[in-house]
Amino acid sequence: MKIKQLLEKTEYELLAGNLDTEITTLVYDSRKVEKGSAFVCISGSVRDAHDFIPDVIKQGAAAVIVEHEVNIDPAVTYIKVKDSRLALANMAAAYFGYPAEKLKTIGITGTKGKTTTTYMVKSILESAGIKTGLIGTIESVIGDKRIPSANTTPESYRVQELFSEMVEAGLDAVVMEVSSQALMLHRVSGFTFDIGVFTNLEPDHIGENEHKDFADYMHCKSLLFRQCRHGIFNGDSEYLQGILEGHTCSVETFGFGSANDLIAQDVELKKEHGALGVRYHVGGEMNFDVEVNVPGRFSVYNSLTAIAICHHFGVDEDKIKEALSHVSVKGRIEIVPVTKRYTIMIDYAHNAMSLESLLTTLKEYEPGRLVCLFGCGGNRAKSRRYEMGEVSSKLADLTVVTSDNPRNEEPMDIINDILVGVHKADGEYVTIPDRKEAIAYCMENAEDGDIVVLAGKGHEDYQEIRGVKHHMDERELIAEIIRENPQLKL
Question: CA angle, 115 as apex, 90 and 249 as ends, to 5°?
Fold first, then answer.
């Protein structure tokens, strides 16, 4: 492939060399450069890849894409672009043969609900015979292949590579989580989404190396709707107009409000034999009843979002109802079947906002007691520990403070910080540093009708201690505890 073919949708200036230069690979990681590579210099928050140009030339790079003037080696082609991240996205799309044009692409953005909604969409579409890939926080899924994720949304090159693999595997569609960082850093540039979705917006991801303020966070979320053909929006959000600013897509809304195109009506909570969920009527442009075995008002929003998306694929109501009745997402209000006496669930809630939302939702089910087990990560802001401790003590009947990922801190130091927050409210609490022992305590002392939440780890299957990740999966811990104490399953 010639460099000019990679650049066909990119604005650039040729500083030196030849546009007919043959390229073997497209690379943005200097360690992966080989003879004939085109190397894109990304200016990161820690290192500037322009500093590695002499190294990549020694490794055999044939072309270098830069953002500013650099020393020229006459044996190499130099291309100057305004934004190397945007250039990488456009070049990656060309490099892989524009795979997004051969798939129906769905991008979901929002503070909460992205992960659960993507799995709901995949479940519904697959049930209707539409082969669907997934890219998200937990993993990327291509048929039977599951690839653990490092970021909610991968770098643009990897996005295009995954799309290409999906096309090769014969998939019809892809549903993916789109973070505000991804939109800000052009990770999903280089193609147009068929459907863009906005779930909700709350203050989050604001600070150093993220967003400077809430307005910037909202603006970055809104960028998706300048890059999709059809937009599906939470019409109940107070930030809807801010998200719509500058949009170029057609608009459809969902929510509880009667002005929405798709409306959730007659919502009722479902609590049966240790399982929790919701029932409601889908009104507006559709008309049927649905049940979801995931609890809470936000479960209504997530499932209604999925319904709105799948409606555009012509999926019939029975397929939608059947898929939603069985959907489960690892680590997102994931109910672990143990006994009908009480409910035990695993959730990723790892900050005060998400924990408060979760516990408030579960209190609506009027449990015998609400028991919340959690810890906090080491080498992170202490304020998170105080806040989570206070939220749990305020909303849960019993807080079980344990270890999460202590990293380079002592677990008891973290626990003592959490207790500062716990003491600001009046909930009962115990401290059990060993997480397995803490879970066993919850199970051994659970009473009929209790809801026990294991918060913070979610889909994670490790515990990070002193720079080493040790395997630890809460589902496996629960199974071990039951094997050691079979009466706990009764």
Answer: 50
Q: Which long-range contacts (CB under 8 A, 24 or more apart) does 69-76 make?
A: 69/15, 72/15, 72/16, 74/16, 76/16, 76/17
Q: How many residues are present in the chain? A: 490
Q: What does the alpha-carbon distance between residue 228 and residue 219 come to, in Å, rounded to a whole number?
A: 16
Q: Cα–Cα distances in Å, from 65 out to 22, 92, 128, 277?
A: 14, 13, 44, 52
| Mean per-residue pLDDT pooled into runs of 10, the chain (490 residues) | 96 96 96 97 85 96 95 95 97 98 98 94 97 97 95 95 98 97 95 98 65 85 98 97 97 98 97 89 97 93 98 96 93 93 95 94 96 96 95 98 96 97 97 98 96 96 94 97 91
At residue 210, the pLDDT reads: 64
Using alpha carbons only, what angle is made at residue 370 by residues 367 and 376, rounded to the nearest 5 degrees?
A: 155
Tokens for 429, please give them. Answer: 């609490």
**Per-residue burial over 399-430, b = 16 or more CB atoms within 10 Å of its CB, e = otherwise:** bbbbbbbbbebebeebbebbbebbeebebebe
Dist CA 281 CA 292 (whole Å): 11
In angstroms, rounded to a whole number, what is the distance separating the alpha carbons of residues 188 and 155? 8
| Four-residue CA torsion sign, 301, 302, 304, 309 | positive
Q: What is the pLDDT of residue 273?
A: 78
Judging by DSSP bridges, how do beta strands 145-148 and 139-142 pair with one another? Answer: antiparallel
User: Which amino acid does the sequence have at 312?
Assistant: H
* Burial environment of residue 276 by CB neighbours within 10 A (0 to 12, 13 to 18, 19 or more): buried
How far apart are alpha carbons 396 and 460 in whole angstroms? 23
Whole-number pLDDT of residue 115: 94
pTM exceeds 0.90, yes or no: yes
Catalogue the long-range contacts made by 51-58 (C-beta closer than 8 Å, 24 or more residues apart).
55/30, 56/27, 56/30
DSSP state of 12: -
Alpha carbon distance 299, 386 (integer Å): 28
CA distance linking residue 166 with residue 161, whole number of Å: 9
**63 in Cβ contact with 78 (< 8 Å):** yes
List domains and CATH numbers for the chain. Answer: 3-95 (3.40.1390.10), 99-326 (3.40.1190.10), 334-489 (3.90.190.20)
State how far the Cα of 108 lies from the Cα of 180, in Å rounded to an integer: 11
Residue tagged 């401290």 (tokens): 431
Q: Are 397 and 428 in contact (CB under 8 A)?
A: yes
Q: Which tokens sit at 84?
A: 């190397």
